[in-house]
Amino acid sequence: MSAETAPATTIRFTDLGLPEQLLRALADVGxxxxxxxxxxxxxxxxxxxxxxxxxxTGTGKTAAxxxxxxxxxxxxxxxxxxxxxxxxxxxxxxxxxxxxxxASHLPGFHVLPIYGGQSYYPQLQALKRGVQVVVGTPGRVxxxxxxxxxxxxxxxxxxxxxxxxxxRMGFIDDVETVLKKVPEQRQVALFSATMxxxxxxxxxxxxxxxxxxxxxxxxxxxxNIRQRYWMVSGVNKLDAxxxxxxxxxxxxxLIFARTKLGTQELAEKLAARGLSAAAIHGDVEQKQRExxxxxxKDGRIDILVATDVAARGLDxxxxxxxxxxxxxxxxxxxxxxxxxxGRAGRxxxxxxxxxxxxxxxxxxxxxxxxxxxxxxxxxSVEAVNEQRVAKFLGKIGAxxxxxxxxxxxxxxxRYEREHNVPAVEIAAALAQLxxxxxxxxxxxxxxxPRFERPGGTTQVRSRDQRPAAPARPSRHGERPFTPPQSGHxxxxxxxxxxxxxxxxxxRPRREAPEVGMxxxxxxxxxxxGVQPGNIVGAIAxxxxxxxxxxxxxxIRDDYSLVDLPEGMPRELMEHLxxxxxxxxxxxxxxxxxxxxxxxxxxxxxxxxxARGPRPPGKPHAGxxxxxxxxxxxxxxxx
Length: 638
Description:
Layout: H1 20-28, H2 36-46, E1 51-54, H3 61-71, E2 82-85, H4 89-102, E3 111-114, H5 120-129, E4 133-136, H6 138-147, E5 157-160, H7 163-168, H8 172-181, E6 187-192, H9 197-206, E7 211-214, E8 225-231, H10 237-247, E9 252-256, H11 260-272, E10 277-280, H12 286-298, E11 303-306, E12 319-324, H13 331-338, E13 348-354, H14 359-369, E14 374-375, H15 381-402, H16 406-419, H17 423-435, H18 491-499, E15 517-522, H19 532-542, E16 553-555, E17 560-565, H20 570-577, E18 580-581, E19 584-585, E20 589-590, E21 603-605
Parallel strand pairs: 1-6, 1-7, 2-4, 2-5, 3-4, 5-6, 8-13, 8-14, 9-11, 9-12, 10-11, 12-13
Antiparallel strand pairs: 15-17, 15-20, 16-17, 16-21, 18-19
């Protein structure tokens, strides 16, 4: 059985066989007609069938599985009858709230969200009192199973929500652990936006003759949203954002960053630059989140910096612009993000920051949405300064029109007489006092330091001077750049030793760097959760250095060693010291004699050009890759 998205549905919830208590709850919240995923999923789940559903976030799948579960729940039974696994605590809370909303007319019903980052005590107490539905992250669910505090012996239904997201976050082994601990006779519903091989394997292993439902998501974006992108080049992203905020005429703006920490830091930096901005993310309490959204609606703040999860369901008419400070991981997230503007037929603006290494994701967005994004030029320093001057003069005009200036006029005339200073000079001094320490005019950014190769040839040029890079070969082929060979074992052999079998390798001997390279120590390592791709990305971006010039990376417990071309300028070294990876400053310095003996290497990146083919099924160093080529950092349980 399959279902496709229809432009409209004539089916009503009353046609699906749901009990009266649930229909009353749906009427209370104003729901009348089910979405396509709900219309296709509710009947087979009510009939006790397993379901394999392919549907994106925002299609209404929470109600698609919550309503059938509630229809078959026994409030008199205090042991869990249904378990929903969710990838994040934000989603677990959201799903639990949905259950509570739909069960408003079911007396005696209790749902419990369990997730990491919260004390065990309230969860243990609630489990002792008895709950019918548990919604949890895989890691915390396993913790309760191991403690013996979660009894799944009477479980009737298991739901895997956003299974591909749990795979991406590294939770898929925990998911299988839970699947093996539930009763043999149980109903399973698996929902996933995509169906990678591992998700298909789980479905084939644990689902029994499932009904397969595929809902085609709407990836098209509204025609009333103007979509532009800026290719990150030459200017710091924060400086570029500031220019756009000053030059663009916007009402309210929603800025998306990837991480909770990123939203907080960006909002603080914008506030320090005099902009009214606040951060909203999963750690912000619901009451505080509601206050922030209301402040945006009322005009008390103009900019909200948010994560994808925190912005779900956000509908504020004032949002005229959506800016993707960090490019999303997938095209659906992009569509969801920019859908926060251009609502109800209004026009909207969407801006996307794209780093050079993220061009592939830009192409994927354009293919998925069937729209070409318009390249935008960053507002020039002169344009920003014109705006600043215009605003400053506007403030003067407003003050002249609205205030009684007689007292201040007398003070200026008095100062002019007593000190023999022209009134224009006094006005200039007063203007400087009003402006304070913040410069009125923006200064052109200094030219970034360049990396000179030995012999005086410029290795790193500005992007408009750099020759075109050679064509990149396939993943399994050799790159055209071959570094000079030293007298040590070849890096290709090192790569074969690293990937050749599953046995844990002995700690590798730290080899001398290639000719023309030297080894640097950076103060981030395995303990900080870094992967080779994080280090490559940071150095390549901040040093304006092509990644092919970055050599071997050895990640130790609390520091790493990286080979870079000789002759790093002092000013560039000072700049890189302050760059952060994994929340830590690099504090880069040239490696000392004993730095290679500081502990086992956890991840390595061979020199460019030396990678041999990797055996099928073997991951790259640093783990699976995200779109754009970065290694993913797996999150801890729950």
